[in-house]
UniProtKB/TrEMBL annotation:
UniProt xrefs under PANTHER family: BIOTIN BIOSYNTHESIS CYTOCHROME P450, P450, PUTATIVE (EUROFUNG)-RELATED
Species classification: Bacteria, Pseudomonadati, Pseudomonadota, Alphaproteobacteria, Sphingomonadales
One Pfam match: p450
Protein name: Cytochrome P450
GO biological process: cholesterol catabolic process
GO molecular function: cholest-4-en-3-one 26-monooxygenase activity; heme binding; iron ion binding; steroid hydroxylase activity
Protein family according to the UniProt entry: Belongs to the cytochrome P450 family.
């Protein structure tokens, strides 16, 4: 075990494959341990994890995305480094995103997020969840075999959050494609810089900027308009960029939790003897299944905190500047808290006390949504099948599964899961959909056509370069591909004058009539 405990959690693919063995090796040294040669603490204890999560006064969430292994962008000085953290906030990976925020900025952003996940709103959207899940599952069952992760989990949760936020139907496939090609958070091979042109956050951010600035000018009866017109707890209004960052985060990170949870849950449904039969007989047990899977194999293995003041955890002195790996997966299997912690127990007492979704101020904002959408789609799988199997040719026999997990120090989720589906006795396939009538081609314009669509059209691109030389290679404008030129005119009035845009429109109109 000594050899195992000295392996590097953040770079070792064998530890990635089975993080639980590494966490148990660490646990042998106590609930809080500093691995040899590392400059961070690893917390595996349930009580200690709760204590740190709840103490937002002394612990900052600033290293939530980059993790505990990376060096800080400054040298901590003194017993309180709060001001140093704030001075360098944008030097941290994703420092201005919700998961990394502290204090008032975090309180404000959470107030916005909480409006998305009220019980009444989720109930209102559940009809869409139910219908969409039903169609997806029935198509999958008719097919007989699918990759649950790529063909069901990721597209389903992406469409759910798109519907909740009001992303236009014509843009939803683009979002699914971007997410499908994106590296997962905490990728062991290194994350792209968030401001890189091709980073999913940058691509989705450009679209959200278009939606948000449109709602500022043209309010509608939808969630984005509510967010734009909303206020923070102190009465101030959010900046449009705050809403854009929220939308980016919900798509780029939040959806991953639900997608991976669905894959992890299906493994237990198939591999625990008699479980799928028990759930079919009593679908009301599905929520209990989800909670126990969250405890045993939640989508988030760990998060991180930075001590911003000299403090204590239990009797341990923790100086300001100490980086901490909070091993959520280990806390949820702490034998001091859970009886028979590594066993699956469907009706485990006090199961909702697990920390799979965090606790206190940084409890996962999307937890209510994750529970609803995973419950709904699992119920559909159980309803429309008489048996579900994991493909042994692809993943090996039960008890000897060979599964590929995402290469991430944050996410615990499968990169694929091939399953075979046997229809239920009363199964009915989806009625074939009539082919939609071809929509008439829209005229190109700086008011209606997104920049990305103009740049994808060779003739329109030539018009832009004629009136705005070099635009097609301008990374800043390219990152606004989801917006129209008129929408971003306010940000570049010297470059995008009304006269130039009118001239562009005249040439675009001639293309439309050519």
């Amino acid at each position: 075990m000594n050899e195992l405990v000295n392996r590097d959690y953040f770079t070792d693919y064998e530890v990635l494959k089975d993080p639980y063995a590494w966490f148990e090796a660490v646990r042998e040294h106590g609930p809080i341990y500093q691995p040899e040669g590392r400059d961070y603490l690893v917390v595996t204890g349930f009580a200690e994890t709760l204590e740190i999560m709840r103490n937002t006064n002394d612990f900052s969430a600033i290293i939530g995305l980059q993790g505990a292994a990376l060096p800080l962008p400054f040298t901590p000085e003194g017993s309180d480094i709060t001001d140093q953290i704030e001075a360098h906030r944008l030097d941290f990976h994703g420092g201005d995103l919700l998961v990394n925020l502290d204090d008032k900025p975090h309180t404000n952003m959470r107030a916005l997020v909480n409006t998305l996940f009220t019980p009444s709103r989720l109930k209102a959207n559940e009809a869409f969840f139910d219908d969409f899940a039903d169609r997806m599952v029935r198509k999958a069952v008719a097919k007989g075999q699918i990759d649950l992760v790529k063909e069901i989990a990721t597209p389903f949760v992406t469409m759910v959050i798109a519907d909740l936020l009001g992303v236009p139907m014509e843009d939803r496939q683009k979002f699914m494609d971007v997410i499908a090609q994106a590296p997962c958070p905490g990728n062991l091979e290194g994350d792209m810089a968030l401001d890189e042109e091709n980073h999913p956050f940058a691509i989705m951010g450009s679209y959200f900027a278009g939606y948000v600035f449109d709602r500022v000018a043209n309010p509608r009866d939808d969630v984005l308009t509510e967010l734009v017109q909303g206020t923070y707890p102190d009465g101030t209004k959010p900046e449009p960029t705050d809403i854009v960052k929220l939308g980016m985060f919900m798509f780029g990170a939040g959806q991953d939790t639900s997608a991976k949870l669905l894959g992890n849950a299906m493994r237990y449904i198939v591999d625990v003897p008699g479980l799928q039969e028990e759930l079919r007989a009593d679908p009301s047990l599905v929520p209990a299944l989800i909670e126990e899977v969250l405890r045993l194999e939640g989508s988030t293995k760990q998060t991180a905190r930075l001590a911003r003041r000299d403090t204590k955890v239990g009797d341990l002195e923790v100086p300001a500047g100490t980086k901490i790996l909070l091993a959520i997966a280990a806390a949820n299997r702490d034998p001091r808290r859970w009886e028979d912690p590594n066993a699956f127990v469907l009706k485990r007492p006090r199961i909702k006390e697990h920390v799979a979704f965090g606790r206190s101020a940084h409890t996962c904002a999307g937890a209510p949504l994750a529970r609803v959408e995973v419950r709904v789609i699992l119920e559909k799988f159980l309803e429309h099948t008489s048996n579900i199997e994991i493909d042994e040719n692809k993943h090996g026999p039960k008890g000897q599964r060979d599964l590929d997990f995402e290469p991430s120090f944050i996410i615990r989720g499968l990169s694929e899961l091939q399953v075979k589906l046997t229809p239920s006795a009363n199964f009915k396939p989806v009625e074939p959909e009539a082919a939609p009538a071809a929509a008439p081609a829209k005229a190109l314009s700086t008011q209606e056509t997104k920049i990305g669509d103009l740049l994808a059209n060779d003739a329109a691109k030539a018009v832009l370069d004629k009136h705005l030389p070099g635009m097609s290679s301008d990374k800043q404008l390219a990152m606004a591909s989801g917006m129209t030129l008129r929408a971003i005119q306010a940000f570049a009035p010297g470059q995008l004058t009304t006269e130039i845009l009118d001239a562009v429109d005249a040439d675009l109109a001639s293309l439309s009539h050519a």
